[in-house]
UniProtKB/TrEMBL annotation:
Residue ranges annotated for the Chorismate mutase domain, each copy included: 1-90
Keyword Transferase: yes
One Gene Ontology term of the molecular function aspect: aldehyde-lyase activity
Protein name listed in UniProt: 3-deoxy-D-arabinoheptulosonate-7-phosphate synthase /chorismate mutase
SUPFAM superfamilies, sorted: Aldolase
A family per Pfam: CM_2
GO biological process: aromatic amino acid family biosynthetic process; chorismate metabolic process
UniProt keyword terms in alphabetical order: Transferase
Domain of life from the UniProt record: Bacteria
InterPro entries, sorted: Aldolase_TIM (IPR013785), Chorismate_mutase_GmP-bac (IPR010954), Class-I_DAHP_synthase (IPR052899), CM_dom_sf (IPR036979), CM_II_prokaryot (IPR002701), DAHP1/KDSA (IPR006218), DAHP_syn_2 (IPR006268)
Ion transport keyword on record: no
Length: 358
């Protein structure tokens, strides 16, 4: 075959490639439409029965020279690409998606602008036990220039016989301390019915890991004008975590901070496994600020500093850790809370690494 003849064949192949390109993209548009219709109907995007039907049709009409198995492979790749497109459209449609809103959401907590490029620290006791206990922690946190104080009043505990928290009384203590020390408070709410009254006492509603898919609670938190710190569920995928945040924003409240707090894996050296890569993934996928709770992810005091360093290095907007005046007698989580000396060491080391917006 002469070179000229070869060129003619190649020109024809080029032409067919372009036709295939057009056809593949035309198909993709239809698949996107189908995806939207499925979304409205709430049907699963992946449909193996439909795929089998299409493959059978292709097999029946295959006149060669390709083997049926080769064609199956090629078409299966096309189906997969269509499915990815549908999934991507779904993600883009979410209100929390960075594709929907490219700029960072900044959550303003009494002047602390979480998500603005600075890295913030949240500290406080696991549970509010008394005014004196919370005030002591606030004093030491304040002496280090911190403003964000956490403390649990409603404590969802694994055992019903463990300390369940002081409830509203605990929130009142937090408010009194926050007013005295000019600090902002974060506290977990577990019952949607408690949100209305709780917001008079706290600056941030925390939704805990065990309640990440408590949809009534998420919706109730979405209906108030108060920042929400949403923790990742114990066994939640990032997709599920993002969708939980979507529940809140879909009700009108976009002041959401995501918090990676470790997930349950087979590893028992730590209480949970800190999924550090969740931080950049969540920041890429959503426009929301992301914090890391080093206390609950590790469950180990000796790992708080290295894990907090990792969180800062990977770009978390804040790091959360628990501090108690006397961890040995704490009513909850005594093995993992820091005493004041440990806290001072922790914060001194981390302040050197934390980004501060100019
Ligand atoms: C499509 C995509 C994914 C499904 O697994 C099956 C088929 C396709 O690419 O043809 C389209 C589609 O979503 C559908 O027909 O239901």
């Amino acid at each position: 075959m002469s070179n000229a003849e070869l060129d003619i064949l190649r020109d024809k192949v080029d032409e067919i490639n372009l036709k295939l390109l057009d056809l593949i993209n035309e198909r993709a548009h239809l698949v996107q439409e189908i995806g939207k219709a499925k979304e409205v109907q709430g049907v699963n995007q992946y449909d193996p029965v439909r795929e089998r039907h299409m493959l059978n049709l292709i097999n029946e009409n295959n006149n060669g020279p390709f083997e049926t198995s080769t064609l199956q492979h090629i078409f299966k790749e096309i189906f997969k690409a269509g499915l990815e497109l549908q999934k991507d459209d779904h993600r883009k449609a979410l209100l929390v998606s960075r594709k929907k809103k490219p700029e960072n959401t900044i959550v303003d907590i009494k002047g602390e602008k979480i998500g603005d490029g600075s890295q913030y620290f949240v500290v406080g006791p696991c549970a509010v036990e008394s005014y004196e206990q919370v005030a002591a922690v606030a004093a030491v946190a304040k002496s280090q220039g911190l403003k964000l104080l956490r403390g649990g009043a409603y404590k969802p505990r694994t055992s019903p016989y463990d300390f369940q928290g002081l409830g509203l009384e605990g929130l009142k203590i937090l408010k009194r301390v926050a007013d005295e020390y000019d600090m902002a408070t974060i506290s977990e709410i577990v019952n949607p019915a408690d949100i209305e009254k709780a917001i008079d006492y706290i600056d941030v509603i925390q939704i805990g890991a065990r309640n990440m898919q408590n949809f009534d609670l998420l919706k109730a938190a979405g209906q108030v004008n108060k920042p929400v710190l949403l923790k990742r569920g114990l066994a939640a995928t990032l997709d599920e975590f993002i969708n939980a945040a979507e529940y809140i924003i879909s009700q009108g409240n976009g002041q959401i901070i995501l918090c990676e707090r470790g997930i349950r894996t087979y590893e028992r050296a730590t209480r949970n496994t800190l999924d550090i890569s969740a931080v950049p993934i969540l920041k890429q996928e959503t426009h929301l600020p992301v914090m890391v709770d080093v206390t609950h992810s590790t469950g180990r005091r000796d790992l708080l500093i290295p894990c907090a360093k990792a969180a800062l290095a990977i770009g978390a907007d804040g790091v959360m850790a628990e501090v108690h005046p006397d961890p040995a007698v704490a009513l909850s989580d005594s093995a993992q809370q820091m005493d004041f000396d440990q806290f001072n060491e922790y914060i001194t080391q981390l302040k050197k690494l934390a980004a501060v917006k100019a």
